[in-house]
């Protein structure tokens, strides 16, 4: 299992990649349910970070598949 610090670094890298290479996707990232906490001070653990990272990677993968022919 990765450490939280490593996951945060990877999340930042993937997010920058989306911002740079997929700006049309980046503008919608703040609308993802995972980024909108339902509590004032939510507890976020390593599993939450791993899930969020995977969701970012899935977004890129899905976007690439949908826009292959473009």
Give a written overview of the molecule.
- The protein is mostly helical.
- 61% of the residues lie in helices and 0% in strands.
- It has helices at residues 4-21, 23-26, 46-66.
- Helix 1 runs parallel beside helix 3 (46-66).
- It is globular, with a radius of gyration of 13 Å.
- The termini are far apart.
- 3% of the residues are buried.
- The mean pLDDT is 84.
Derived from helix and strand composition plus strand pairing, the structural class reads mainly alpha
Q: Major beta sheet, specifics?
A: none
Average pLDDT = 84
Task: Give the % helix.
Answer: 55-70%
Order of helices and strands: HHH
Compact overview of the structure:
The chain is mostly helical. The chain contains three helices and no strands.
């Amino acid at each position: 299992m990765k450490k939280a610090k490593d996951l945060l670094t990877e999340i930042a890298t993937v997010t920058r990649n989306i911002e740079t290479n997929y700006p049309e996707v980046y503008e919608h990232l703040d609308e993802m349910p995972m980024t909108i906490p339902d509590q004032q001070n939510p507890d976020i653990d390593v599993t939450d970070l791993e899930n969020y990272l995977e969701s970012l990677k899935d977004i890129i993968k899905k976007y690439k598949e949908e826009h292959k022919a473009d």
